[in-house]
Design brief:
disordered C terminus; 22% helix; alpha+beta; 32 strands; single chain; 6-stranded mixed sheet; disordered N terminus; 14-stranded mixed sheet; 491 residues
Length: 491
């Protein structure tokens, strides 16, 4: 049977009239029962129950509708909040199939190491000084900085809280540009070489980094696919880079802080904030930093370098420390008058620095063990040098006494061979590559970049430990080998 539109409307109106009349009768009946029971104390409970039942029956449809509206509104608000905080969530769904790699090259003039990253929109390659203890990534923002995705978060925003910025930034210039906004977040930038400081503006912009997708071998110097963090937090700074290569445009901080490079990459792509550092001694081919969870095996031997692990501690500013219990030269303990306690690991200190009394005892022990080599005139900044004609060459550099930093318990030693203990300052002169740090330095030992070169160093921040391979040259490979590989069986 066909029902017209007017008939449908009449049926609906009739049904609504019946519901309204039923509801009115229910209310009149409830009032009569209430009047009878008001003076009956024993009936108070049943009176309340009747009220609940009547009310629920009358308004069940309306309550369900209001409940659905409430949940729908709550979902919209929750989704909006998620969208606003999107840069700070772990999103494993966009996790790259393999790890992330940052090629790093040595600068011959300064013995420091420089990485190249892609930033801005459109992308621009930037040269950044690698600072193992840096708190964040800072970039020099001059008038030529142009990016369609640059954004300066407002003071006291979520981004400022994450960066531990509690000071508002104001720019004296009348022109608004990257690095020059008012009521934004301020952070102190530090030149890791000269220790100069300045105030910069917290900002966010796109950052791209190469991925490792080939499971068999990777060349750190070859181009490869990239992934992007669209809202990477960094500090837009003025130039503070005296004493570092002139072409450097900022600092890549790898320290254990909330907005350092390893932390932001791990948070965005959904892996632990661990990384592997392998600095090359070669000026022609790069070393690398690999971000991810596991250390890597280097070719051509395709043999996993055995890593020795020691406890890793973190300083107040995100610096990395290990506890050095003693120093040995050719397996003989160096007699020390000073308690070493801990040693900082640094990539912005070109050569290891020792407190004065430690330096004196160490250089004396080393010279005694190398007595067959004649001394040479010191060449700054080094104080102990030798005639290279009396020192043989080996696969791991000059054939000199090996040096052990005994770390953690007494069974773990970070062993340094000739390539890491000696600096070739002239074809006829080799110098002991350690610097006298004077009395009362901030740290009794700072392990420098030269001692880190051609060593695979695994910073396992999840387990608060550091692993080191000692010189890869002993395995006939190095950090700038043509390829490096995963452990056999690893995905």
């Amino acid at each position: 049977m066909t029902i017209t539109t007017n008939a449908k409307v009449n049926v609906v109106l009739s049904q609504n009239s019946v519901l309204c009349e039923t509801h009115a009768r229910s209310r009149r009946s409830y009032k009569k029962q209430t009047h009878k029971r008001l003076n009956d104390p024993s009936s108070k409970h049943s009176l309340f129950s009747s009220f609940l039942v009547s009310t629920m029956a009358a308004y069940s449809s309306s309550s369900l509708l209001l409940l659905l509206i409430f949940f729908a509104f709550s979902f919209v608000v929750f989704a909006s909040e998620l969208h606003e905080s999107e840069p700070f969530r772990v999103r494993p769904s966009i996790r790259p199939s393999q790890k992330l790699v940052l090629p790093v090259r040595k600068d011959g003039a300064t013995n420091l190491h420089v990485a190249t990253v892609l930033k801005r929109t459109p992308q621009v390659p930037l040269k950044l000084l690698v600072d193992l203890n840096g708190r964040f990534l800072s970039v020099e923002c001059d008038e030529e900085y142009q990016s369609s995705t640059y954004f300066a978060p407002r003071c006291h925003s979520t981004q400022c809280s994450r960066a531990h910025s509690h000071t508002c930034y104001s720019c004296s210039s009348s022109s608004v540009r990257p690095g020059c906004h008012n009521n934004t977040c301020a952070l102190t930038t530090v030149n890791p070489v000269s220790q100069e400081t300045d105030i910069g503006e917290l900002a966010q912009d796109a950052l791209s980094i190469r991925t490792i997708r080939d499971k068999s071998a990777i060349d750190p110097s070859a181009p490869g696919p990239t992934v992007t963090v669209p809202q990477f937090l960094f500090v837009c700074a003025r130039r503070l880079l005296n004493l570092v290569p002139k072409y450097v445009q900022g600092v890549a901080g790898l320290g254990h802080t909330s907005i350092a490079l390893p932390t932001q990459l791990a948070s965005h792509f959904g892996f632990r904030p661990n990384f592997v550092l392998c600095l090359a001694n070669s000026l022609r081919s790069p070393g690398f930093v690999v971000f991810g969870e596991d250390p890597y095996t280097l070719a051509p031997n395709y043999v996993s370098p055995r890593l020795h692990y020691a406890p890793l501690s973190v300083g107040r500013q995100g610096e990395y420390y290990i506890q050095v219990r003693s120093i040995r030269v050719n397996n003989k303990n160096v007699p020390l008058k000073t308690n070493i306690n801990r040693a900082k690991i640094s990539t912005t200190t070109p050569f290891t620095v020792l407190e004065h009394s430690i330096f004196e005892a160490f250089t004396q022990s080393f010279s005694q063990q190398l007595s067959q080599a004649g001394r040479a005139q010191p060449v700054g900044p080094f104080r102990v040098c030798f005639d290279s004609r009396r020192i043989p060459n080996t696969i791991a550099g000059p054939g000199v006494p090996r040096v052990d930093f005994v770390v953690g318990d007494q069974s773990v030693a970070w062993t340094l061979f000739g390539a890491n203990t000696m600096a070739v300052v002239h074809p006829l002169v080799y110098c002991l590559a350690f610097i006298d740090g004077g009395t009362n330095p901030a740290d009794p030992i700072v392990i420098g970049a030269h001692q880190l070169e051609e060593n695979l160093v695994h910073f396992d921040l999840h387990q608060s430990r550091v692993g080191f391979s000692s010189s890869l040259l002993n395995q006939r490979t190095n950090c700038s080998a043509t390829s490096y590989r995963n452990r056999p069986g690893n995905p």
